Amino acid sequence: MAAAGGESSSQSVSDELFQNFYTEVKQIEKRDSVLTSKQQIDRLLRPGSSYFNLNPFEVLQIDPEATDEELKKRFRALSILVHPDKNQDDPERAQKAFEVVDKSYKLLLEPEQKKRAVDVIQAGKEYVEHMVKQKKKQLKKDGKPQDVEEDDPDMFRQAVYKQTMKLFAELEIKRKEREAKDMHERKRAREEEIEAAEKAKREREWQKNFEESRDGRVDSWRTFQTKGKRKEKKNRSFLKPPKVKMEQRE
């Protein structure tokens, strides 16, 4: 019973940590929401952004549980902030940042894509919770205090953030691998199709040339035979037997 109570207590602490995580995320969002246009552009285009920006909630700095209306408001505010028209001193980078924001917003408008992103975040949280539980279990087995760094809400938040980014990155790598494989298969199929078409073309041309040359060969053979017969007939006309002279008797 004590063990069960311990697990329940651990789960309760974990839920509390997770709630603290989102509370802190909201505080960060509130702080970052007043970033200048340049700061937002720098955030969206920072080194490693190709992977950081895979999480649409991270891009828009909004809670996964936000309503559609809240999502719409956040998109409008952030898109205006990084829009090229508002950043004419650096329009190219502003355009790239705007495209990142626009892509994330459109992705979250699709229920299936939004669910996928939420599931990845949830998977990251569950993984960290599992690891924390395993660490505490091992410490208990070793007879040591069951204190881990993830007990600190800040450290727990960072662990979830890192694991979430890792999961998004792994999914993106797999997607690119599938895409590359599909492209290779399409290219190979196209090459085989072209090769088959060329082979069929060569066979048609060969057959056509054979038919045309056959007619010529037949005509030549007939002409040859006709000339041969005429020559043979002519030669026979000159091969007359010699006349036999009668001997005269005295």
From TrEMBL:
Keywords, in A-Z order: Acetylation, Chaperone, Nucleus, Phosphoprotein
Region (Disordered), start-end ranges: 133-154, 175-250
SUPFAM superfamilies xrefs: Chaperone J-domain
UniProt-annotated location(s): Nucleus
Start-end of Basic and acidic residues biased regions: 175-220
Database matches in Pfam families: DnaJ
Alphabetical list of InterPro entries matching this protein: DnaJ_domain (IPR001623), DNAJC8 (IPR042858), J_dom_sf (IPR036869)
Basic residues bias spans: 227-237
Domain (J): residue spans on this chain: 55-122
Domain of life, source organism: Eukaryota
Keyword Cytoplasm belongs to the record: no
GO CC term, one of those recorded: nucleus
Major location category of this protein: nucleus
Purpose of the protein: Suppresses polyglutamine (polyQ) aggregation of ATXN3 in neuronal cells.
Quaternary structure (record): Interacts with SRPK1. Interacts with HSP70 (HSPA1A or HSPA1B).
Name of protein: DnaJ homolog subfamily C member 8
UniProt organism field: Poecilia reticulata (Guppy)
